[in-house]
Amino acid sequence: MATGKTDILIIGGGIAGCIAAISLIDSYHVTLVDKLPEPAERIGESLAPASQRILKQLDLLEGLENQAGTLYRKSVGMQSYWGSDQVHLVDDLRNPDGFVKNLDRQAFEAYLRRVAETRGVHCLWGSKLHSSSYENSRWQVQLRASASPLSIATISASFVIDASGRQAHFAKSLGIKRQLEDKLVACWVTLPNCRTNTMSTISASENGWWYSAVIPGDKRVVAFHTDADLVAKNELKTTASFLELAKENPVILSLLNEHEDAIVFKGPVAANSTKLKQVAGQQWVALGDAALSFDPLSSQGMYNAMASAMQLQTLLLKHGFTETLQKIHTEQTEHIWHHYLKHKSIFYQAETRWKTAPFWLRRF
Fold first, then answer.
1. For the segment 177-210, what is each residue's pLDDT rounded down to a tens digit?
2. Cβ-proximal residues to 130 (8 Å cutoff; 6+ apart), any chain
3. How far apart, in whole angstroms, are the C-alpha atoms of residue 336 and residue 218?
């Protein structure tokens, strides 16, 4: 059995976990673990312009810019069919932070992992949480290696950050539940892009809404968002059923028909708004999606992961591993949550064409 000691143990090597690790490594010994040896392909590629401030602050922006075309492509704007059949164009021409970046999410997370390693974070990829206990003012966390399940490593940590996504593995192991606001799921596919117009598209339909964006490698992501109980499970299982759903939306169907034979079906993933009922406790906090998960309509998931990681860094440097930190982190998270719910409601209620249909009625 291997053992180790660290100031801060971060469980989850996604965006929240990596940004937290990179921001804290100059002040603490940081250990970062993730159950996956390498990041998985994921939907969720729209990086809000304000995120660039954080990347610049952490000296990450130049490295990202140097890989333009590979890690991201600039989004010139959004074609919105929301509240009307007429297209409404939304752009960032006047945004002082620049344009939205459409990321290759998998490549971006791999980039953040490499930077964390380079800057001295102790990284354990392919290790998942097995169990934990709190003893003598420290967390004793047992990790199981994916490659050899019988191999258990124990990490002794002064502080634990749960950045393990919606599953919130550490918080869940403590018996903490999640508050679920809705049943939204996103079913997605990828296909080649051949259009010169590379604007993203959002388009409402009776049973939900559609989204499309072009990402590096001339690849297009198309996703349909609906409530899990409003569509039969077999309708979210194949390319053919996905195309059938798209027939209700001519704008999206025209995109899919261009490369129907080259569509790669990815399937459904959770996209609902959820909140961990307790986001901080004795020498631990939850961060990013583990604390709050947002509707993709907000395009705020990645930005919130980064911003909340930076807020936590400020709190740790000022208050250490104290109850004051727990209190302020909880208050900040509650404030973000209520602000998000208010704006989510306003945006959904702007679409009135199907307000008596179950999907939209639930959001009024």
1. 999 999 999 999 999 998 888 889 999 999 999 9
2. 142, 143, 144, 152
3. 35
230: tokens are 């409003």
Token representation of residue 245: 């759903």
Please, is 168 exposed, middle or buried when counting C-beta atoms within 10 Å of its C-beta (0-12, 13-18, 19+)? buried
Report the distance separating Cα 121 and Cα 30, nearest Å. Answer: 5
43 in Cβ contact with 266 (< 8 Å): yes
- Provide the 10 A C-beta neighbour count for residue 341: 15
φ and ψ at residue 54, rounded to 5 degrees: -70, -45
Burial class (CB in 10 A: 0-12, 13-18, 19+), 319: middle
pTM over 0.85: yes
Under 8 Å between Cβ of 329 and 279: yes
Q: Are 153 and 1 in contact (CB under 8 A)?
A: yes
**How does pLDDT run across 66-95, given as a tens digit for each residue?**
998 899 998 888 999 999 999 998 877 677
Of all helices (H) and strands (E), which one includes residue 337? helix 323-348
Query: How far is C-alpha 177 from the geometric centre of its chain's CA atoms?
Result: 19
Q: Over the stretch 227-262, which tens digit does the pLDDT of each residue have? A: 999 998 888 899 999 999 999 999 999 999 988 999
State whether residue 361 is helix, strand or coil: helix
Share of the chain above pLDDT 70, in %: 99
Say which residue the tokens 């959004």 belong to.
Answer: 78
Q: What is the pLDDT of residues 295-342, one digit of tens each?
A: 999 888 999 999 999 999 999 999 999 999 999 999 999 999 999 999
Q: With bands split at pLDDT 50, 70 and 90, how would you rate the model's confidence at 2?
A: low
Two tokens, residue 362: 């639930």
pLDDT of residue 1: 41
Nearest to 18 by CA among 28, 35, 32: 32
Region at 53 (left for phi over 0; alpha for psi -120 to 50; beta for the rest): alpha
> 166 in helix, strand or coil?
helix
Q: Which structure tokens are listed for 277?
A: 């009922």
The residues near 281 (Cβ < 8 Å, ≥ 6 apart) are 174, 326
Distance CA 56, CA 44 (A): 21
